[in-house]
């Protein structure tokens, strides 16, 4: 479950934090508990990024559909 704080994160903030989480996991040197906490945080951040990207895709699709409708109306 994503927290209210995560919902307020912008795409770039979530992406940057996710990059940091991945780097820390790849570097190793953390306990199992720390690694699990980092993994869980990474999953939450990935969901935030995915929601932003899905929203951007929906807005783009809507804009393209409006453009196609306008072009179709002009052609008639």
What this model shows, in words?
The protein is mostly helical. Helices cover 87% and strands 0% of the residues. It has helices spanning 4-8, 11-27, 32-75. The chain starts with a helix and ends with a helix.
In quaternary terms, these chains amount to single chain
Q: Please report the distance between the alpha carbons of the first and last residues.
A: 49 Å
Percent strand equals under 5%
Taken in chain order, the helices and strands follow as HHH
Shape from CA axes? rod-shaped
Pick out the low-confidence regions: none
Q: How many DSSP-defined strands?
A: 0
**Overall average pLDDT:** 91
The number of helical elements comes to 3
Taking all Cα atoms into account, the compactness measure Rg is 19 Å
Main pleated sheet: none
Query: Which structural category fits the helices and strands?
Result: mainly alpha
**Helix share of residues?**
over 70%
Summarize the structure.
The chain has 76 residues and is mainly alpha-helical. It is 87% helix and 0% strand. The chain contains 3 helices and no strands.
List the helices and strands and how they pair.
Layout: H1 4-8, H2 11-27, H3 32-75
Helix pairs in contact: 2-3
